[in-house]
Amino acid sequence: MRAEVEPTVTMAALSLILARSRAVLDGVSNDKHLEDEMVASAKRITLKWSLAVGISSLACLLPLTAWAGADGSWKNGAEVYAKVCGYCHEGGIVGPVLKGRKLPPEYITFIVRHGLRAMPAFTAAFIDDEALKGVADYISKSAAESKEGEENGR
């Protein structure tokens, strides 16, 4: 189970860093190293949030057919998973790991069409029924990913 940070906690941490940075910049502190470190930390946090918001906004705005082949169709469920689902579900970065859980294709189809928690709903305008059936079958039949350093079967 991964730990989730509440947005208010993250914003509070960012506000604290910025407040301390302001104090340093206003001359309350004469520690140049601390000043540089705090400004760099605030910039890193801002950059990470900007990238996360930008990438997720782009993914929501572009139709999934943009990642399909030149004729607008997908080769198979593995391609849909690799180009769309894997961004959030590989390694459980944003969404849960799906491979190896033997989820029923009907369940996957329902969640994709209706969404659940952080997972947005993907209408037929974003992923057609044939591609959705292919990716649902692929996920339900896929084996679990092996962890780094482990060999399959040992």
TrEMBL record:
Superkingdom of the organism of origin: Bacteria
Keyword annotations: Heme, Iron, Metal-binding
Entry-linked Gene3D superfamilies: Cytochrome c-like domain
Pfam families: Cytochrome_CBB3 (PF13442)
Classification via InterPro entries: Cyt_c-like_dom (IPR009056), Cyt_c-like_dom_sf (IPR036909)
GO molecular function list: electron transfer activity; heme binding; metal ion binding
Cytochrome c domain boundaries: 72-143
Protein name: Cytochrome c domain-containing protein
PROSITE patterns associated with the record: CYTC
